[in-house]
Each structure stands twice: as C-alpha cells, then as structure tokens.
Specification:
By secondary structure, the protein is mainly beta. The protein contains no helices and 9 strands. Strands 1, 2, 3, 4, 5, 6, 7, 8 and 9 form a 9-stranded antiparallel beta sheet that branches. A hairpin with a 4-residue loop joins strand 6 and strand 7. This is Cupin domain-containing protein.
Length: 119
C-alpha cells in the first residue's frame, strides 16, 4: 500500500448532484465530484465542480479548498461576501453557515475532515 495519492481525476468517475431543493436560493446549480480519497476516518479529497446558482450551506465538517477555476462568492451569515477565484485557497470550519454563489462555473480541489463520533 502506498501512502502517496496524486489528485488525478482522469480515472475517476464523477458523481453528480445538486443542493437540496430547500437550500437553493437562486438558479439551478449542479455538482460534479471526483473523490480520489475516502477513508473510514472521515477524510475525503478530490475535485468538485459547480454550475451557476446560489444555495445555503451549513458546515459540520472542516474543509480546505483551493479554487482551480471560475468565480464564487461565499457569504457567512452576518459576515462579508468573499469572492474566490482561481488560485485562492481557504478553510471552512465547522459551524460555518451562509451561502455559496457560483457566478462562473467553479472547480476546486478539496480536503474534508468529518467530525469523528465519540462512542
């Protein structure tokens, strides 16, 4: 088993999806996700893409994002709107609530860490 994984989506089939209908604020956004890493410990990594639209987001997880292309605006409830473009990186922490608006189809690399349930 190797401990190195290249983020390469060429041999990964995209999963498709969309925000839950009750979360959509505007538009008809759709998602494509290429997971290259998924562990029982709640770690996910890969590439995600979304088409234009705006929806509400709520984070229980920790996520690192690096924008590869497109333009999106993230707005935390009660906070300022932040425009993200190719080359921008950011972290969303558990407890982030707000909106994600895709102005131009956006593609990002991500690493997600889900909280571990205590037993």
């Amino acid at each position: 088993m190797t401990h190195f994984i290249k983020v390469d989506t060429s041999n990964v089939e995209a999963e498709t999806g969309a925000p839950a209908p009750d979360r959509i604020v505007s538009g008809t956004p759709t998602f494509r996700t290429w997971n290259v890493e998924e562990t029982a410990a709640g770690i996910y990594a890969g590439v995600w893409e979304a088409t234009p639209g705006k929806w509400r987001i709520t984070y229980d997880e920790w996520e690192f994002c690096h924008i590869l292309g497109g333009v999106s605006v993230l707005t935390e409830d009660g906070g300022e709107a932040r425009t993200m473009r190719a080359g921008d990186s950011f972290v969303l922490r558990p407890g982030f609530n707000g909106t994600w608006e895709v102005l131009e189809t956006t593609r990002k690399e991500y690493v997600i860490h889900l909280p571990v349930a205590s037993g």
